Structure formats: C-alpha cells, structure tokens
Amino acid sequence: MNIKAHTDLSRLCVHTITTKPWDIATAARHYAAAGIKGITVWRDALEGRDIRQTGNMLREEGLSIVSLCRGGFFPAKEKAKRKLAIDDNRKAIEEAVALGAPLIVLVCGADPGQSLEDSRQQIRDGIAAVLDDASAAGVKLAIEPLHPMYADTRSAINTLAQANDMAEALRSPLVGVAVDVYHLWWDPALEQEIARCGENSHLFAFHICDWKSPTTDMLLDRGLMGEGCIPIRKIRSWVEATGFSGFNEVEIFSIKYWQEDQSAFLEKIVTAYREHA
Ligand code: ZN
Fold first, then answer.
1. pLDDT digits (tens, 9 = 90+) for 183-209
2. Which residue of 14, 72, 147, 268 has the smallest Cβ count within 10 Å?
3. CATH fold of the domain at 12-276
4. What's the CA-to-centroid distance between 105 and ligand 1, angstroms?
5. What is the mean pLDDT of the chain?
6. Average pLDDT, stretch 70-75?
C-alpha cells in the first residue's frame, strides 16, 4: 500500500484514557513534548484534583482542551436513577466550566431492562433536562453513537443517523454529534450521514483508532491507526468535506497498550497518526 505520511501534528489530540497509566500532569507533559496540541480529558483523570488548576496546567503546557469525556448514561428503568444521571450531567457541565472545556461527549446509555425506544426517549429527555445548564455555561454537548455491540448497556444510539435525528429534534446549537470511526466505520450510510452533520453544522468531534481483526475484547482491544480495517483517511476526508476543522482525537482503550511503556506507546501513536490518519 502506498501511504503518504504527513507531518502536521497541529490537529492531533489524545484522550487521557489512551495513556491511562499516566496521571494527567504526566500525560500533559509528554503530549506537549511530543508536539501534540490537543487533549480530551476523561473525568476519572480529574478525581482528587483541583479542576480549575488542572485546566490552567494543561493550557500552560500549550494544550488545547478539546472536550470532557464523558456525560450521558441517561436511561434507567427507575425514575430515581434517571434523576441521578441528570444530576451527574449537571456536575459534568460544572466540571467542564472549571476545566475550560468547550464540549462534553455524551455516551448516552441504555438499560437492558427496557426497550431501546424507551431508552432513546429517556436520552432525549435527559439531554433536554440539562440544556439550560449547558446553555448558561456555554458548554456544547456531543451525542456519540456507539457500535451496536454496546446497545445493551452503553448506548441505545448506534448509528450516526440516529444521533443526527436526535440532535435535529433537540433543535439547539449546543447539541451536536461526535463521530468515532471505531463505532461507525461499518455503516453503509456513513458518508451521507457525515454530510448531513455538516449541513446542520453539528459535527462537534472526530475520534480515531482502529478495529483489530480479530478483536479479542469488546471494550479494551482497540488498535492503533493502521493496525486494523477502518478506512480512517477516507472517513476523515468525509469529515473534512463538511468544513470540520477541529482535532483528530486518538481514543484507544487497550489492555495491551496500557501494559506497555507509555512513552514508547505515545511515539507509536504519533507515528501511526502521521502514516495512517
Ligand atoms: Zn469516541
């Protein structure tokens, strides 16, 4: 295969979960030293820290804070649990403000004890319930459709068409979608649905990694770009055709890579990004 490497790292972002063994200060220092310009912060990385100071520390390292991961998990059969989820999303909005993150990614949730339709309605109601808070805070919300293998407990929104439908139904400039190649690469409607995001100006985030074949763990065996079967550059070209000029965010959950030396892993990420993304 003739793959042309590119040298521009100005739109490379890494999710803190990708280098999970590092605390956020260590991650920030290494990302900046590697020439990475963006960071998406997972909430577990903020536990026990002063969030405002952490945001300042990241900016001092020269990193743009791309988003906070993650809100969502709205559906539950029991009303009390749905209320807890809404409270937690309000808390996530406060954390995003303190951190200085302009966007929260929503892993929307699902409850296997009820229908997907019911879960979807509760997702819509949940987002609607926190919209005023998001609006007051100036924080955007991105609905991230997840691969259908996660439809039981992680997300009842599994295609970009469903995410687009919901974003359009909520009619707010603060609500958009996150396109993650891992979840969506298989969808025959992907190109047209990405174009639809562009028409509505609600493509808020773009996540990359690769689908290993075989995949040995449904959650924790994501591959480096180029290691699997996702046509990442093709999908990126569809994303950029919409006018999207945000970051390409590397989000890899991998037991294998978390066991490796994280500095060496970060070098692999940069090389894989240059060659395959
Ligand atoms: Zn993602």
1. 999 999 999 999 999 998 999 999 999
2. 268
3. TIM Barrel (3.20.20)
4. 8
5. 97
6. 98
Q: How far is the CA of 207 from the centre of ligand 1 (A)?
A: 5
Rounded Cα gap, residues 74 and 246, in angstroms: 27
pLDDT band with cut points at 50, 70 and 90 for residue 80: very high
What pLDDT shows up at residue 7? 77
Residue 251 CA to ligand 1 center (angstroms) comes to: 6
**The predicted structure's pLDDT at residue 133:** 98
Q: Exposure of 134 by Cβ count < 10 A (0-12 exposed, 13-18 middle, 19+ buried)?
A: buried
Give the dihedral sign, CA 145/150/153/159.
positive
Ligand 1: centre distance to CA 26 (Å): 22
Any idea where the domains of the chain sit in the sequence? 12-276
Distance 88 CA to ligand 1 centre (A): 20
Q: 21 C-alpha vs ligand 1 centroid, how far in Å?
A: 19
Q: Which helix (H) or strand (E) holds 38?
A: strand 38-42
Burial class (CB in 10 A: 0-12, 13-18, 19+), 15: buried
The rounded Å distance from CA 180 to ligand 1 centre is: 5
